[in-house]
Amino acid sequence: MELCIEIFMEEIPARMQRQAKIDLLQLFINEFERLKLKCSAPEVFVGPRRLSLHVENIAAASETVLEEKRGPKIGAPDAALQGFLKSSGLSENELTQENGYWFAKINIPGKPLQELLPNILDKVLRNMPWPTSMRWPGAGHTWVRPIRNICCVLGGKSVVFDVPAAGIKTNNYTFGHRFLNSAQITVTSFAQYRQSLIDANVMLDFEERRSVIEAELHKICQANKLTFVVDETLLDEVTGLVEYPFVGLGQIDAKFMHLPGAVLSTSMRVHQKYFTILNSKGENAPFFGFVANVPINADCMTAGYERVLRARLSDAAFFYEQDLKLSFESRLDGLKNIIFHADLGSVYQKVQRLEFCAPNSSVQQAARLCKCDLLTNMVGEFPDLQGIMGEIYAKAQGTPPEIATALKGYYQPQGANDPCPNDDISWTLSLLDKVDNLIGFFGIGMKPSGSKDPYGLRRSALGIIRLMLHKSGSNSLRGWLEKSVQSYQQQSVTLKLDVVEMVTAFITERLSAFLKTEMPADHVYAVLDKPLEDIWATVERARALKYLLQNEAGVSLLSAYRRVVGILKGIQVGEVNQQFFVHDVERTLCSSLTQATPKIDEHLKNFAYKEAMTLIANLKPAIDNFFDHVKVMDDDLQIQQNRLNLLGMLQSTLNTFANFSKLEG
Amino acid sequence: MNTQKISFQEIILRLQQYWANYGCVILQPYDLEVGAGTSHPATLIRALGPKSWNTAYVQPCRRPNDGRYGENPNRTQLYYQFQVLLKPCPANPQELYLESLKAIGFDLSRHDMRFVEDDWENPSLGAAGLGWEVWCDGMEITQYTYFQQVGGIACDPVPVELTYGLERIATIVQGVESHFDINWNGKSGDEAITYRDVFLRSEQEFSAYNFEHADVEMLLRHFNDAEKECLSLLELKLVLPSYEQCLKANHLFNMLNARGVISVTERAAYMGRVRHLAKSACETWIG
Question: Partner of A274 at 20 to 30 A CA spacing, among A155, A167, A519, B104?
Answer without folding.
Answer: B104
